[in-house]
Amino acid sequence: MTPPAAIRRTILVLGVIATLGLAAATVEAASRWTAASAPLVDGPVSIDSIQAALAAQQSRSAVLEEQLAAMRSASDDLAAALSTANDQVSSDQVTADQLRAALSAAQAKLAKLEAALSAQAAARPTTGGSAGGPTAPPPPADDGGTDD
Fold this sequence. Notes:
The chain has helices at 5-37, 47-123. The radius of gyration is 54 Å and the shape is rod-shaped. It has 2 helices and no strands. By secondary structure, it is mostly helical.
């Protein structure tokens, strides 16, 4: 036997109302629990403090932009100095190569002169003593220039 429809409807409505009441109580308890675990100690920030912080950050940004511009300028100066130094090194390398060539030529000339002196000294008859005899005049002095 089933109870009459009016009783079933009443029990169903009471069950829905009880369920909604328990749901509301659960939400209320959860909100109180959350509020207790994370209290809002500090109030919201005022618009004046936000504007002051914005102004401070804007001035800091301007200072940083000036520093960045100065660093770029210094970087450009260093790049120009490096380019000039590289050009000077290249020029010095060419000069060093020319000096090496001149030194090699001078050493070759010196070797020829030393060989000529050795040959001349070997071709000279030697006498019993070195005193009193005529001596050959010294070779002409080299002024360090190049032969033209």
